[in-house]
Fold this sequence. Notes:
The complex is a heterodimer of chains A (159) and B (198).
Chain A: H1 10-31, E1 36-48, E2 51-62, E3 65-78, E4 85-91, E5 95-101, E6 108-111, E7 114-117, E8 126-130, E9 136-138, H2 141-151
Antiparallel strand pairs in A: 1-2, 2-3, 3-4, 4-5, 5-8, 6-7, 8-9
Chain B: H1 7-30, H2 37-52, H3 58-65, H4 74-102, H5 104-109, H6 113-127, H7 132-140, H8 148-169, H9 178-197
Amino acid sequence: MTTREVQQTPQEKQQLYLEKINQFFEQIKEWLPNSFETVRTENSPIEDKTGEYQTPILFIVKKDKPDDAVADLLPEGISFLTDDALIEIHGAYDDEEMIYMQENNQRYTIKNGGKCPMYQGFVQEGWYWITDLNQIRLITKDLFIDLLNRVSAPLEVSV
Amino acid sequence: MNLSNPLPDTWRAIIIAEDALKITRKVIVRSPKHSNEECCYALQTFQSGLLKGTVYEGNHALKLLEDERAKPSIEHRKIKGLFVLELWANFERFLRTYLQEKGLALKQHVQPSILADALYEHFQANVERWEPRDILDFLKNSLFSTNPILQQMIEDAKSIYTYRNWVAHANPKKMNSGHELKTTFKTLNDIIEILLQT
């Protein structure tokens, strides 16, 4: 049975989503250079097809300028169409979207007569940066720093 | 058949509008506030010049573009929903026109021709009233029946139709993501491309 066929209640979907967000936010704290820190707020209201609930938000700030957010990580909810977990990252220059992908949740199309994934770039279960219409990249420490540099002014890293 | 896929043009228009909205939001909401005096003056002059050309100035624009938690506002998200409606409307129009063109065979092959003409007129008028789900179901049971991935694509299109209805009639908080928009475009675009190849 694939994950897409597993029937979960809306509350179970929300719970899983919150667990993935929390794990990811903890991971990000470890990835950041020493000159940066995270500020977390709880209970941000959200509404998606599973109903209304609350999620945390993570702000990435410079330690010496905690009032100036470098980037904000805002959970968007569970995708109406694909049931995937989504988080947006907002910076001064750009916004990008991240998706939690699993092998069994991949969607396919037919291109030139052959099976083709909707998003190219799946490696293993985890959070991915949707870099293009058809492309995802697994978020590692280095890629997350690249992502921060894309959405905000280049980080002046002092590790 | 002279049909062509309308969705790539629609998608380009959506990208332009999305970029324009994003840049507007960033310029108004996220411009640096702690530059030196000269830079600040130049920036403020530039921004006030930009704002003169907008309908919603100053604080009104801020509220419409981004809420207090730095999230794109409900109004901003609602626009993403309009893009979904536009993609679906183009897709649905394509399907009906595609079937009407296929139905021309009635006119060409049924005898006597006076019956063929009447039959085709009736068919053409009725295609406009067919339920999108019914159209998708008979595509699934015919052209798209040969491969489970093709069948799943039709099921995904039915989900998009449900999503389109949710966007249009419910969805009070307007939670429309970029991923949703990409999935809508890619799924409907691929179905059209397959229809055009068969």
